[in-house]
Design goal:
- The longest helix is centred in the C-terminal third of the chain and has 17 residues, at 145-161.
- The protein is 28% helix and 27% strand.
- The radius of gyration is 18 Å and the shape is globular.
- It has a five-stranded antiparallel β-sheet. Strands 1-2 form a two-stranded antiparallel ribbon.
- With 164 residues, the chain is an alpha+beta fold.
């Protein structure tokens, strides 16, 4: 989802879940449950300041993209939130999108990137871990390897236990 603050600062934040997680309420309305993330709240703050949003739907295996532009509001509708529950966990809020335009986007960029091709996958170990990146950005000195390993394990544990 792409949003912008009142002064025009842009932000893009991924959303994703099992197929069908975006509820199509009618021909002009979508509902996106808000799942736990990095707790920065950039998307929600931007929606409060500026309701204009852009959505880009990537579906594994499909090279065509769906683009949706509209106006968002943050909602706490119990019926919508209840329908979005996963593993017994109901989201606290969701994003209601009044669709202004929706259209398919050609597949050229995805085809060029070979995004869904197995041989295009990168070896994750070729880049630093998320823990190392965070520690190096926030520390005055390079972190010891054992600290990086501890932070990486905390991140993985959070993924296992706090996905919903």
């Amino acid at each position: 989802i792409g949003t912008a603050s009142a002064d025009g600062r842009a932000d893009v934040s991924p959303r994703g879940d099992a197929p069908g997680f975006v509820q199509v309420l009618d021909d002009n309305t979508l509902f996106i449950p808000d799942r736990p993330g990095n707790n920065r709240m950039d998307t929600m703050l931007n929606i409060i300041e500026n309701p204009n949003v852009g959505l880009l739907f990537l579906v594994p295996g499909f090279e065509d993209l769906l683009r949706v532009n509209g106006r968002a509001t943050i909602v706490r509708d119990p019926a919508l939130l209840g329908a979005a529950a996963v593993n017994g966990k109901t989201p606290q809020v969701g994003i209601h999108v009044a669709v202004d335009e929706a259209y398919l986007h050609c597949a050229k960029a995805v085809k060029r990137s070979r995004l869904w091709h197995e041989e295009s996958k990168q070896d994750r170990k070729a880049l630093p871990s998320l823990g190392k990146i965070i520690l190096e950005q926030t520390a005055d000195t390079p972190p010891p390897a054992e600290v990086v390993a501890q932070v990486d394990e905390l991140i993985e544990e959070n993924y296992r236990s706090a996905l919903y």
